[in-house]
Design a protein that fits this description.
This protein is α+β, with helices and mostly antiparallel strands. It is built from 4 helices and 16 strands.
């Protein structure tokens, strides 16, 4: 039985003007390599399990992004380990993570654990693209990642429209063959992300790209989508395609018509999501105490 969700507060009003050009700037970012790492040779003994728990968590690990007061590097890594151990997540979709921290947790969890990581980039007005770095020695790039207790195959950075000038987030997918499930972590661009065109909206095209990248049934996808659920007082509802709540169901979706969900951000909004085409067994919101985002966990049947 899924817990009773609370309706989140309405989000800020979106900017209405549409961009005329942005595709070329987006595709430029896809030249960056996706890093795939593992602690050792994984085995497929977990394939016998008939359920899979997947979490998503924006770690707020990039300290210069107003995250200095959300917990130390050590605390964030401890809470990520707790998602994999105490909370039982066998795969974690991450946003605002540091490459060094993801690698450290993967190593501490042991041989079966693997990860895939992609860095955020920043594009300036002259077209120069740089990798965003985490503050602090040994932290490496800032980015989004998938951490899993299984080998990850077919790791893919999904093309999506991104700001011509400003921070470029993105979508990263990988397959857990042991459960025959496609995972995708996404971090979408909030309104005003393009410094050259602050009235351009990107979340609609980014959500379409995300949905197009996953299969109809055997998938769990989501992340920090930087938008409230559709409906009600949310004036940004138009950015949502129909598939996430119809073909797929959200972790906290109680019925076919429901678009509500519990708060996942300290501001009182639901910004974090997990969608799946598999049967849902449980949905949990977990306050780690080490981020302005709460972790969201869904348990699904995979047999």
């Amino acid at each position: 039985m899924l817990p009773t969700p609370a309706r989140p507060a309405p989000g800020p009003r979106p900017r209405r003007a549409r961009r005329a050009v942005a595709v070329a700037a987006v595709l430029l970012g896809l030249a960056a390599a996706v890093t795939v790492a593992q602690t050792g040779g994984g085995d497929r003994s977990f394939a016998a399990a008939r359920t899979l728990t997947v979490a998503t968590w924006n770690m707020c690990g990039v300290r210069q992004w107003n995250c200095a007061d959300t917990g130390s590097r050590a605390v964030k890594q401890r809470e990520l380990r707790h998602l994999a151990t105490r909370a039982g997540a066998r795969a974690v979709l991450l946003q605002e993570a540091c490459a060094g921290g993801v690698a450290a947790v993967r190593t501490s969890l042991g041989r079966p654990w693997h990860s895939a990581f992609r860095a955020y980039t920043e594009r300036d007005g002259s077209g120069r693209v740089t990798t965003v770095r985490c503050a602090g020695s040994g932290q490496g790039a800032a980015g989004y990642a998938i951490l899993a207790a299984y080998p990850l195959s077919d790791v893919t950075a999904v093309p999506s429209q991104q700001p011509t000038v400003g921070l470029r987030r993105g979508i990263l997918c990988a397959t857990v063959a042991a459960h025959h499930v496609r995972l995708c972590t996404a971090h979408l661009s909030p309104a005003g992300s393009d410094r050259a065109h602050p009235d351009w909206e990107f979340r609609d095209d980014q959500l379409k790209a995300l949905v197009a990248a996953v299969p109809r049934r055997r998938t769990v996808y989501g992340g920090d989508l930087n938008v409230n659920p559709p409906g009600g007082a949310n004036s940004a509802s138009r950015v949502w395609p129909s598939a996430p709540y119809t073909i797929h169901r959200e972790c906290d979706q109680r019925s076919a018509s429901s678009r509500a969900g519990r708060v996942t951000h300290a501001s009182g909004h639901k910004l974090d999501y997990l969608f799946t085409g598999l049967p849902r067994l449980r949905c949990t919101v977990r306050d780690t105490g080490a981020s302005d985002h709460f972790a969201l966990l869904v348990r699904v049947r995979t047999d």
